[in-house]
Design goal:
Blueprint lengths: L1 E4 L2 E4 L3 E6 L6 E6 L6 E2 L3 E3 L2 E3 L16 H14 L1 H8 L7 E2 L2 E2 L1 H40 L1
Antiparallel strand pairs: 1-2, 3-4, 4-5, 6-7, 8-9
């Protein structure tokens, strides 16, 4: 395989192997990681090479490096703004909403997420308005004293 990563040309071999499907129809294709020599469905481009994530020592997801309080803030942010990705998925061109005249499980799950985040946003907006009102009244009190 030859490619450029960050302008640096790289060329090395990544094998692809297949095994028969357990359903008896067709084959399942795998990449062979050049570092671990094991079969994987996904390889990741890190530092200019395609390897499986188990080949990298000390690699973590970005959220794993956050403190506990930042992780909770991250979760709350996604509760408030996760609706956008759910709505985007629902209204994508080939999304199946109905199968055999019944709504799909994924469609129902996404609708549930959208309605939850709408309720959260309304509740959060009320809390923010109350909080800002308290701050304004405190500042008015502080000015007058």
């Amino acid at each position: 395989m030859g490619y450029k990563s960050n302008g640096v040309p790289t060329k090395y071999r990544v094998d692809i192997v297949s095994i028969p499907s357990n359903l008896g129809k067709g084959a399942i294709w795998y990449f062979v990681c050049p570092k671990t020599q094991k079969r994987y469905r996904k390889l990741y481009l890190v530092a200019g090479y395609f390897y499986h994530r188990s080949a990298f020592n000390g690699c973590m997801y970005e959220t794993q490096t956050l403190s506990r309080s930042n992780r909770s803030l991250f979760r709350e942010y996604h509760k408030l703004f996760g609706k956008d990705s759910a709505e985007k998925q629902i209204y994508s061109k080939y999304f199946k909403k109905i199968y055999k005249n019944k709504p799909t499980k994924l469609y129902l799950l996404l609708l549930k997420q959208v309605s939850k985040t709408r309720n959260l946003r309304i509740g959060t907006s009320i809390v923010l308005v109350y909080f800002l009102t308290c701050i304004i009244s405190f500042l008015d009190f502080w000015k007058s004293s």
